Amino acid sequence: MDEYRKTNYRPYIKWGMLILLIVIVVTSSFYTIRSTERGVLSTFGKMSDDVIADGLHVKIPFIQSIKRVNVQQKKFDGKENSYTRDVQTSEVEYTINYELVRENVSKLMKNVGDDYHNRIVVPFIRSAMKEAFGNFAATEIVENRDAVRRSIEQQLRKTLDSNYFVSIQFQLVDIDFDDEFENAIKEKQVAEQNALKAKNVTIQVEEQAKQTKIKAEADAEAMRIKANALERNPKLVNYEAVQKWDGKMPQYMLGNSVPFIDIK
Q1: Confidence at residue 263, expressed as pLDDT on a 0 to 100 scale
Q2: How many other CB atoms sit within 10 Å of the CB of residue 218?
């Protein structure tokens, strides 16, 4: 009885396995590429030069395989040691952004592989930073860091293969000089601030002295004019006295003279 049942189930098992195989073949024949990706098709392990765009596609099961490459903007952080023109050492943290040339991702994968950033981009970053930092003294880098950044970015745009990389943007996140140099920079900044403060005080004192001199010269000129006028007309003495009199008669007078009255 058991042997009979086993014999009758064999065709079903065969059909089931055949159907399963067909399902596997059909499902593995279709694949999709998203809009943020590009595909590289390989046949027996050999990559094609063609780039597969986004959408639904068909491949030969078990013979062909698809490699998906993300073509969204890349962002990588890194750190390098650099020497300035005056031989100051610095540890530099940076960020680089770039995009892959979509129609050439198959060539990039064939010629370089997945580790293209470390194999191509990082060495060029190291070279560009070495050249840029070597053109500036340490104090110049501190005072004008964006000039260094632009120099590195321009160098990368020239040297990185434009067949593979575009939209390159480079940023300096942090530049860490040794403690002795940074302390010297701080002391220099404090000295410059104190010198500027002293200069402002000097300018203020000089301006005050200038104003005092102008006022003294004006007062002297006024006195000279008044003296000349009195010399020409002595009666102006009495006139000046009358102008300053408060209208009160003095309590004690010597003789019969009345102040400011001259009947002659």
Answers
A1: 43
A2: 10
Q: Helix %, strand %, coil % for the chain, to 5? A: 55, 25, 20
Count CA atoms closer than 13 A to 22's CA, side-chain side. Answer: 6
What is the spatial distance between Cα 84 and Cα 31, in angstroms, rounded to a whole number? 52
**Model confidence pTM above 0.90:** no
For residue 118, the 8-state DSSP code is I
**Backbone torsions φ then ψ of 258, nearest 5 degrees:** -110, 130
* Six-digit token string for 75: 């962002």
Overall size of the chain counted in residues: 264
Residues paired with residue 32 on neighbouring β-strands, in sequence order: 56
Cα distances from 77 to residues 90, 153, 174, 197, 261, in angstroms, run: 17, 15, 11, 41, 100
Q: Which residue(s) pair with 95 in the sheet?
A: 77, 171
Identify whether the C-beta of residue 85 lies closer than 8 Å to the C-beta of residue 134.
yes
Q: How many CB atoms lie within 10 A of CB 234?
A: 8
User: Which has the closest alpha carbon to 47: 65, 28, 29?
Assistant: 65
Q: Cα–Cα distance between 77 and 81 in angstroms, integer?
A: 14
Query: What is the rounded CA–CA span in Å between residue 247 and residue 259?
Result: 11
The two tokens of residue 222 are 């006024």
248: three-class secondary structure by DSSP: coil
- Write the pLDDT tens digit of every residue in 106-145: 999 999 999 999 999 999 999 999 999 999 998 889 889 9
Q: Is the dihedral of CA 84, 87, 88, 89 positive or negative?
A: positive
pLDDT at 250: 57
Helix pair 122-134, 145-159: axis angle to 10 deg: 140
**Element at 226 (helix H, strand E):** helix 179-232
Residue 113, Ramachandran bin (φ over 0: left; ψ between -120 and 50: alpha; else beta): left
